[in-house]
């Protein structure tokens, strides 16, 4: 069992770019996180893939690790939610929504058909650019929820802030992103959105929630 204080220290050293600390964290936590993931996905191979992906994300986002105040909680919650997301994604149709009180989803999407890979990729690029322009803390909260699949209460625990603060930050982030991408799609609040724009906006929202 690895002490939480040691994990926190390793997180800090990883943020400083120390590969040896990353390797130490991987060696210390990988196996027990895989076993933990297996409680949800059953197959060992799938659990290994989920855990490995978490560590890849950890390294790629190492410059922001100091903002995660409870690293051990973050590791377990991330693995659990990734495993649950994997189970849900095995279904052909998935309803996209936010199940936290106080936050209203922009839209529930039940189906999605790609008309153009170029169109989809362009929307993803625009979305990522818009996310990068969010305030640092707001960006971190948004990514933890929308990309890592954490819930507002979990993010609040990890960052040691109130759940209401997390909810407010997610709401503000979604509002900004929706506004930015709506302008990109040529939609203005004063005008009625066209059917074609609705389809494109739905695609954008799918990218947003995944």
List the helices and strands and how they pair.
Layout: H1 4-15, H2 19-41, H3 44-60, H4 71-89, H5 117-132, H6 136-146, H7 152-159, H8 163-184, H9 195-209
Summarize the structure.
The protein has 210 residues and is mainly α. It has 9 helices and no strands. Helix 2 crosses helix 4, helix 3 (44-60) crosses helix 4 and helix 6 crosses helix 8.
Overview of the structural elements:
There is one protein chain. With 210 residues, the chain is an all-alpha fold. The longest helix has 23 residues, at 19-41. The two termini are 33 Å apart. It is built from nine helices and no strands. It has helices at 4-15, 19-41, 44-60, 71-89, 117-132, 136-146, 152-159, 163-184, 195-209. The protein folds into two domains: 1-91, Orthogonal Bundle (Rna Polymerase Sigma Factor, Chain: A); 94-210, Winged helix-like DNA-binding domain superfamily/Winged helix DNA-binding domain (Arc Repressor Mutant, subunit A, Orthogonal Bundle), CATH 1.10.10.10.
Give short descriptive properties of this protein.
Arc Repressor Mutant, subunit A; 210 residues; mainly alpha; disordered C terminus; 2 domains; Rna Polymerase Sigma Factor, Chain: A; globular; 9 helices
User: What is the CATH T-level topology of the largest domain?
Assistant: Arc Repressor Mutant, subunit A
Any idea what the CATH architecture of the largest domain is? Orthogonal Bundle
> Which shape, going by the Cα principal axes?
globular
Q: Give Rg in angstroms.
A: 18 Å
H/E element sequence: HHHHHHHHH
Beta content comes to under 5%
Q: Report the count of strand segments.
A: 0
If helices are DSSP runs of H or I spanning 4 or more residues, what is the number of helices? Answer: 9
Helix content: 55-70%
In whole angstroms, the N-to-C terminal distance is 33 Å
Mind summarizing the main beta sheet?
Answer: none
């Amino acid at each position: 069992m690895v002490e939480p204080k040691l994990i926190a220290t390793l997180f800090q050293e990883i943020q400083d770019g120390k590969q040896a600390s990353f390797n130490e964290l991987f060696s210390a936590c990988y196996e027990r996180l895989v076993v933990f993931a297996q409680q949800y996905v059953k197959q060992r191979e799938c659990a290994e893939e989920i855990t490995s992906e978490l560590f890849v994300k950890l390294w790629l986002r190492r410059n922001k690790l100091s903002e995660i105040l409870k690293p051990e909680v973050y590791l377990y919650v991330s693995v659990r939610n990734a495993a649950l997301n994997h189970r849900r994604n095995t279904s052909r149709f998935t309803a996209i929504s936010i199940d936290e009180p106080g936050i209203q989803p922009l839209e529930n999407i039940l189906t999605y058909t790609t008309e153009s890979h170029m169109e989809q990729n362009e929307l993803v690029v625009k979305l990522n650019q818009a996310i990068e322009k969010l305030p640092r803390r707001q960006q971190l909260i948004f990514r933890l929820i929308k990309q890592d699949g954490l819930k507002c209460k979990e993010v609040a625990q990890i960052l040691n802030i109130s759940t209401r603060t997390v909810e407010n930050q997610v709401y503000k982030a979604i509002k900004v992103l929706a506004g930015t991408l709506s302008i990109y799609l040529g939609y203005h609040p004063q005008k009625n959105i066209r059917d074609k724009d609705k389809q494109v906006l739905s695609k954008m929202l799918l990218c947003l929630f995944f």
